[in-house]
Amino acid sequence: MSGQVGDLSPSQERALAQFRENVQDILAVLPSTDDYFLLRWLRARSFDLKKSEAMLQKHMKFRKQQDLDNILAWQPSEVVRLYEPSGFCGHDREGSPVWYHIIRGLDLKGLLLSVSKQELLRFNFWSLELLLRDCEQQSQKLGKKVEKISTVFDFEGLSLRHLWKPGVELVQEFFSALEANYPEILKNLIVVKAPKLFPVAFNLIKPYITEETRRKVLILGSPTFVPTGNWKQELLKFISPDQLPVEFGGTMTDPDGNPKCLTKINYGGDVPQHYFLRNHVRVQYDHQATVGRGSSLQVDNEILFPGCVLRWQFGSDGGDIGFGVFLKTKMGERQRAAEMTEVLASQRYNAHMVPEDGSLTCTEAGIYVLRFDNTYSLIHPKHISYTVEVLLPDQTSLEKIENSRQASRLPHPPLWPLGPQ
Questions:
Q1: Cys staple from 44: which of 183, 221, 293, 314, with CB 3.0 to 4.6 Å?
Q2: pLDDT tens for residues 166-214?
Q3: Are 409 and 402 in contact (CB under 8 A)?
Q4: Model confidence, pTM
């Protein structure tokens, strides 16, 4: 099949020819030398030759570091194979492979206690290379170029545990690597069953994806706001029934009739503790403080509107420490715990042995107080290290979900792409 591509302006054709000449010294070691491949890098940098060449050169170093030329011979460890909830199943209506991600089965903490962050990243690079190989096979089979991947993210079951800081940082690192090393391969990122927490989760990822990628995010429906049948109808516009699992509104099943297509999509689950290699993930803290004997420390956080998430991590030296979250009833003055509204009951944690982490969704605006309690210890002060963050929802996706609620009254609710906000 020809490596030529049409629909380029004269200036773009000249840029492509010049780009090919500029990277002549590495053409032999590129995974592909056709125009489609080279155009991915040019488009990712708006046809700026210097930036495109720098991006490709960095990618070649990445390929060597990750041994991408041989990665398809690599096999992930058992725990990753069994509990990383994703899979490649079928093709969309244009012949592109479809990559599914099942959020409710994602136990990021369990995975990171069982394997290294590098292995989890490598698993996703391995998956991408498998999908790109399928694109090549589809190109030969269909007699046309297939170079992009469709993705379906099932966000049912998204909860505060998925906002665990080390886990979110892993996802952020993956999307950064995806943008830097696999430009222009995502056709769309289809989100189904987005819950109320989705705008907060998306806002954590948004800085790590380009404006172009943000425009490809489509929210098809939310069980919270939209009747569950609607998103299945909309998904069929992208994927024909025979290529879509019954679980997602199609007719495809496993050979034994299973509607979830478990031979193709891994639905994950909680990682059993016998896989754990460590009891905690090492973290970096933003603050240190000493809580004197018989005293407490209060850390105030202003929440401007409902729906924000308060997230924290802490460790202690010198023994256990009490911890609770309260909401002030009077502004501008310190209050004792008994004078405030208890949001998360105070209890003692062995944070000197295993670091603690947690989060909560703030149902109302106000001053939320993280209270470290050492009043029970009359002899020993406690040294604590902690990080606390207020996670804001992405306003664009909030509006799209609200629009979905309004559109649920229509016979055919529209699609809601997330623009470059």
A1: 183
A2: 999 999 999 999 999 999 999 999 999 999 999 999 999 999 999 999 9
A3: no
A4: 0.87
